[in-house]
Amino acid sequence: MESLDQLRDRIDKIDADIFSLIAERFEITNQVGIYKAMHQLPAKDELRELKQYERISALAEQFELDPQMAKDFLAVIIDKVVENHIDIAEQIE
Ligand SMILES: O=C(O)C(=O)C[C@]1(C(=O)O)C=C[C@@H](O)C=C1
What we know:
Layout: H1 4-38, H2 46-62, H3 67-92
The structure holds prephenic acid.
């Protein structure tokens, strides 16, 4: 059995991986924000979001996680992405 410190080290590494991937996702969504601003597209795409929530919910079930928790987690990220898109559009105007 691993020690508490070893288990916590593994948790810390996973947290670092998660945030590295979230940062990469924001880099990509910022590019989407620039594209949308340049093509006068709205910051928010409800249909795409519905598909995203369905997809994340199915993914959560596949990994035996709570689908609502997964959707809440994604909502925090997507809400921030939309804010960033609005900021980008204001800067490009
Ligand atoms: O796919 C897009 O159009 C995005 O802007 C990305 C994204 C997302 O983070 O997944 C964010 C905002 C949109 O409302 C839908 C999806």
